[in-house]
Amino acid sequence: MKIQKAAVIGAGVMGAAIAAQLANAGIPVTLLDIVLPDNPDRNFLARSGVQRALKARPAAFMDPARAALIQVGNLEDDLKKLKDADWIIEAIIEKLDAKRDLWARVEAVAKKTAIISSNSSGIPMHLQIEGRSEDFQRHFVGAHFFNPPRYLHLLEVIPTPKTDPAIVKTFSEFAETTLGKGIVVANDVPGFVANRIGVYGIVRAMDHMQRAGLTPAQVDQLTGPALGRASSATFRTADLSGLDIIYHVASDLGKATPDDEDFTLTPAFRALVEEKKWLGDKTGSGFYKKTKDEKGKTKILNLNLDTFEYEDQGRVKVAAVDAVKGQPLAARVKALYAAEGQEGEFLRGVMNDGFWYAAKMAGNVSNRLQDIDNALKWGFGWEQGPFETMDTLGVQTVIANLEAEGRTLPPLLAAMKASGRDAFYQGGEIVTPEGQPTPYEAPYFILTDLKKDATKIVKKRAGASVIDLGDGVLLAEWHAKMNALGEDQLRTVQDAHKLVQDMGYHGLVIGNQGENFSAGANLPLILSQAQADEWDELDDMIKQFQQVTTSLRFSPHPTVAAPFGLTLGGGAEFTLHADHVVASAELYMGLVEVGVGLIPGGGGTKEMLLRFTDMQQPGQRLGATLLPAVQRAFELIGTAKVSTSALEARNLGFLRDTDTVAMNKNHILQDAKRQVLALAPGYVQPTPRQDIPVMGDAAIGAIKSALHGMHQGGYITDYDLVVSEQLAKVLSGGTGNNRAAKVSEQHLLDLEREAFLTLLGKKGTQQRIEHMLKTGKPLRN
């Protein structure tokens, strides 16, 4: 069973976004919706859904060209097109009768082998397929995406008692590998996993907030990044989701669950939805409201729940949060759980509710504790799930606190108390919902936690490690803040190259399991050395950086880079020099050095010139052939262009056509390892190029002419002009060369280093670096 063609029924927000994600993955998809009466365009709703997805921000499509893979139609004229689909998913109105009627029509035309799914967030799957044939029921499995489907990793797969296990396996593997989702197998119960536990947490947070006398803004400080959760925290998440959605989900869950689960909404929340009709972002007002001041600058006003008026409360400070700033997650969680005053009272109340409920739901919403943890992490942006958080605090400590509140322990916690075990995850085991230890089964695509497995670490530094991936492949892994590139990171790559050769490994992967591949060079260090006039040290450091980046290509063994997330500056330069790249589809890659008054100094300028020059057609006059290549490299680097996906990175030239794009970020290290093993047999060490054609003064003159026109027109600043002229010098191969000259890679690297140091010595560049470090934004001086 292979899914090569798909169909989506329902072109609303979710349906169109699911179709876009299928197109992102290269899957042709048919998108159908109803026909609007009196509208001459019978495909209007489906066509509008695609257009809405194209305009969505954040973007639903990784490359707008992928929209061509979506064929629009309607349910009256085009239902027969479903016969070609290997997977059919509905995303229509949340009414049981409507879904049942649709499935009757679908069964009449779908091929017998097609997998059928519902994206329903609340209607039980088994109820939808009552009356359908046994064969249809065997091929039916729930597929609940989270919005927006491109960015939220979670996909809940919900089999019914009639679903064929082979269908669950085939679909889960397709969704995980091809669509890039994190799979949680949920039981067919109200709310499934993430919404059941997540909405319970939101409802209880509202109650505890009013008991503690806190404001929504204070609660969002307490339940956001400080606690290892998404920056939207509780009430900003509610506004984004829609207060009406939470209202209906909570009301439905309250009717479908036992009384002790308490999905009762506070009177204030009910008033917002029922009386005020303030539903969050969709109406412009919720717990927060965006407005503009007299200068047109956006301001966020906070809702006062006592007066129901919006107030400018300025920056909300919370003492418990300020006290844990800069501490690692485990220390923050422990400190916040033990905090004093109304803030601590609120946190313990809401966290204990969450712990109690997650334990109660174990074996109910899902049969594995790790599925509950993953659902909250992947669907709500938590760093730790509830069971992982209890492990951080100590399970016996949590149990004692729950009993002190007079709560009856759920069976799982009662079993943990009886065993004396203080962690759910321990020694390669995790407990079952019944409290029995069992071997931990990680999702197959995630590496074992190598940082905790000393037998896998070959060499370790404070900010980076060399790790044995098995099968004769090493990994150079960075693990510093934002994976900024400094001495530890560079020396670790050198260590890894030497180990590959000395110990007979096949090759090397450059990658990590952090939040981002690398945000670039260690700017504070570079600035401090420049201000201390340590120019010899800086020169040596840039030489070393160039040697390490280029070593990825010119070593005796294959090296594969596995970039993802932010891959900026030096991180991009490492990627550009690898023999092969396995990139996450969510790749934000760019040479952004001009934003701090510099140019790429680790071979990035050289590499983009070389790539674009090689793309030119042979047999044309050298000058006419080269100038477009120089201009393309200049525009890409000079505007600090950053890709919004791996597909765009390929279009921009950061990735080659031969490089690999993986939809699932968690697959890239294993895929990179496989690429090393594929390249290793018969691998021949490349040699640096000596024949790179450059235009010299002719290109410099052409670029300078364009620059001065832009400067006079006010499009670039005085200092933009200074930086751009240095960039033009490198891309032209230096002054004094004629348009027929050929230079070596080392010549271009030397020009890069000279330009980098020249700019670093200027006040304008140092001002830009200082401003970036202080504000996180570029300075236009």
Automatic annotation (TrEMBL):
Domain 3-hydroxyacyl-CoA dehydrogenase NAD binding span(s) in chain numbering: 5-188
One example of a Gene Ontology biological process annotation: fatty acid metabolic process
Ranges where the Enoyl-CoA hydratase/isomerase domain occurs: 480-605
Source organism, top-level taxon: Bacteria
Signal recorded as keyword: yes
GO molecular function: (3S)-3-hydroxyacyl-CoA dehydrogenase (NAD+) activity; NAD+ binding
Catalytic reaction annotation: a (3S)-3-hydroxyacyl-CoA + NAD(+) = a 3-oxoacyl-CoA + NADH + H(+)
Keyword vocabulary terms for this entry: NAD, Oxidoreductase, Signal
Database matches in CDD domains: crotonase-like
Domain 3-hydroxyacyl-CoA dehydrogenase C-terminal stretches: 191-289
The UniProt record lists the keyword Magnesium: no
Signal peptide: 1-25
Gene3D superfamilies for the chain: 1.10.1040.50, 2-enoyl-CoA Hydratase, Chain A, domain 1, NAD(P)-binding Rossmann-like Domain
Protein name: 3-hydroxyacyl-CoA dehydrogenase
